[in-house]
Structures are given as C-alpha cells and as structure tokens.
Design brief:
It is built from 5 helices and 3 strands; from the N terminus they run ααβααββα. It has about 150 residues and is mainly α. The protein folds into 2 domains: about 45 residues; about 90 residues, Arc Repressor Mutant, subunit A (Orthogonal Bundle). It has a 3-stranded antiparallel beta sheet with strand order 1-3-2.
C-alpha cells in the first residue's frame, strides 16, 4: 500500500525553496544593476552580512573583527574590508590601526583572527590544519618562564 502524501509538508518545502529562489533572483538583479543588495543571506543557514550602525559598539578591534568575520564567513577579508565594516558598525578606526592591532594579536597567538596571507584575515577555525608559529610561542614561553 502507498503511504498518503503529506501535502502540508510538500507545500512548506516548496515555499522555502521559493523564498530561497526569490533571494537568489534579487541578488542576481542587483549584480546587473536592477536592484540593491541589502542582505547577503541567500540560503537558510548561510551567514548574514547585514551590519547596523551599532553592530560593533562596545567591542575592541580584535573582538569586532572576529564578529565581522563570523558574520560574513569565508573567504578571508582584506584589512580595508574589515575597517570599512567596523566603521559602518559603529567602531571608528583607521585601516592602519586595524592592521597594527590584528598583526599584534596574531603575533601573540592570542586572538581568534589569523593572517591568511599578507593583508588578508580570517578566523583560526577556518584553518584547522594551519601550523602555529612555534618560534614566537617558544619565545613567549621563555619570557614567561624567566618572569616566574
């Protein structure tokens, strides 16, 4: 015997697919100049890149950069992209200060944000097999041992 069709579930699935397709169409229209992209969340589960004027208020540069990278997901972002996002989100900073602070945090191996390559930043969780900077870690351990 055949199982009865659950039309309510079928309709729910079709509506979800239609919503996702409407978002894709909207984004494609924006790429050809027919619309404006305001939210990059195309499919359910995809990260949202919508930044409000208070998104990063109360955070420091490393915290805000990590939050931004979590919002937008891969690929790695440039220092300029991160700076623009932080400023848009209410954390006033310069490209130079973002580069300096992220570089310092990366050198110390203390933050979530890592240098993917020169001028590009990502989250450490994106690169699980990335080797740690053993030389700097050993130097910091030697320094902390000397202070003990």
């Amino acid at each position: 015997m055949d199982d009865p069709v659950d039309y309510a579930a079928v309709l729910t699935d079709l509506k979800a697919r239609r919503d996702a397709l409407d978002k894709v169409i909207s984004h494609l229209e924006a790429f050809v100049g027919l619309g404006v992209v305001t939210n990059f969340n195309v499919f359910p589960g995809q990260k949202s890149a919508e930044i409000h004027g208070d998104t990063f208020v109360g955070l420091n540069i490393p915290e805000a950069a990590a939050a931004y990278l979590q919002m937008v997901g891969r690929p790695a972002r440039t220092t300029n992209e991160i700076t623009e996002a932080l400023n848009k989100g209410g954390l006033q900073c310069s490209t130079g200060s973002v580069a300096t602070v992220l570089g310092r945090e990366f050198g110390r191996q203390t933050g979530e944000v890592v240098r993917a390559s020169k001028g590009l930043w990502g989250l450490g969780s994106w690169y699980p097999s990335r080797p740690k900077n053993a030389k700097r870690r050993e130097e910091s351990e030697d320094t902390s041992d000397a202070r003990s």
